[in-house]
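Now read this:
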Amino acid sequence: MNVDFLLPLIPISAFVCLAYIIKAVVDARVHRQMVESNGSEALVRSILEGDELRRRHGSLRWGIVLVALAAGFGIIQGNGWTEPNAGVFAVLFAAVGVGHLAYYIASRRLK
């Protein structure tokens, strides 16, 4: 099995992981400083709850979009399309668009 096409993905993956680690450390430091700053307990709680809600909504968004994208790939596979053409890309873009619209509807109902 030839896996030479995977070699460029190694530095890209390392960069993405490093960026995520830096973001996690910075977020943790900011949260710790908020708690230690002797600020209003209600303000700190509301900020932390807002962050948690934003994280959950991010997970919901990507879950819905990826399921819609998987459905788009299923449609492409089911129709037997093997060559990349405008129709294939239209199905994929439509699937991502439908996923984002479904997220919008779901997020409006969660409020």
About this structure: The helical segments are 9-36, 41-79, 86-110.
